[in-house]
Structures are given as structure tokens and as C-alpha cells.
């Protein structure tokens, strides 16, 4: 179908070349991967919140007096999935196209994980 959009056939060699584009990496790429991993986890958390909005509202109304303020411990706990995402992104740093695909897969994976493990608040 994509070949018809481009008005030419796409050969498997072209796809390989597109996927195997390499770039030299330096310390900035590692820093940006760390920031990106933290943001990917945040994006997954926001998507999951919108997917389960009714459960979130019931949970907040039930636990509002016991919910701690968002302090440093929240960001530390939030950093655990970010560290896992960072480790998953490391093999793809040299390949920009594969890195983008991996980032999308990480967001989808964390969203699925958070959504399926959401606390059930039906009894509240």
C-alpha cells in the first residue's frame, strides 16, 4: 500500500538501509535518552490516566485525606520505570529510526502495564 502512495515499489534493501542508518553517539545522546525515558514514562502515565479517568476520580475521592503531597519520593518512585525505559533505549541510541520505533513501543508497553494493573475501585 505504501508503494502505491509513493508511486513506486519499495524494495526490502531500502527498508534495511532506512532501519540501519547509524550515527555516532556522544554524551549528549545518553543525557537526552535519560530525559526521554523519563518523559516517555510520564506520557504513558498521562495516557493511562485519561483511559481510566472514572477510576482515578473515585480513587482520589476515597483516598484524598491520605494522599501525600507530591514530594521528592514521588519523583524517585517515578524514576524506577524511567530507569527501566532508559536501559531499554540504550541499544537503540545509535540508530535514530529504530530509536523512534522503540520509544513508541515503550510508551505503549508502559500504558498497557499501568492500565491493566490499575487498582480496582468498584467497591468505593
Fold and architecture overview:
The protein has 6 helices and no strands. The chain has helices at residues 2-5, 12-19, 27-51, 53-63, 72-89, 96-116. α3 (27-51) packs parallel to α6 (96-116) and α5 packs across α6 (96-116). The chain is flat, with a radius of gyration of 19 Å. The mean pLDDT is 76.
Q: What's the topology here?
A:
Blueprint: H1 2-5, H2 12-19, H3 27-51, H4 53-63, H5 72-89, H6 96-116
Helix pairs in contact: 3-5, 3-6, 5-6
Element pattern in H and E: HHHHHH
Q: What value does the Rg take, in angstroms? A: 19 Å
Helix content: over 70%
Report how far apart the termini are: 50 Å
The largest sheet, given as strand count, sense and whether it forms a barrel, is:
none
SS-based class: mainly alpha
Q: What is the strand content?
A: under 5%
What structural keywords apply?
single chain; 6 helices; mainly alpha; 124 residues
Q: What's this entry about, in short?
A:
Helix content is 70%, strand content 0%.
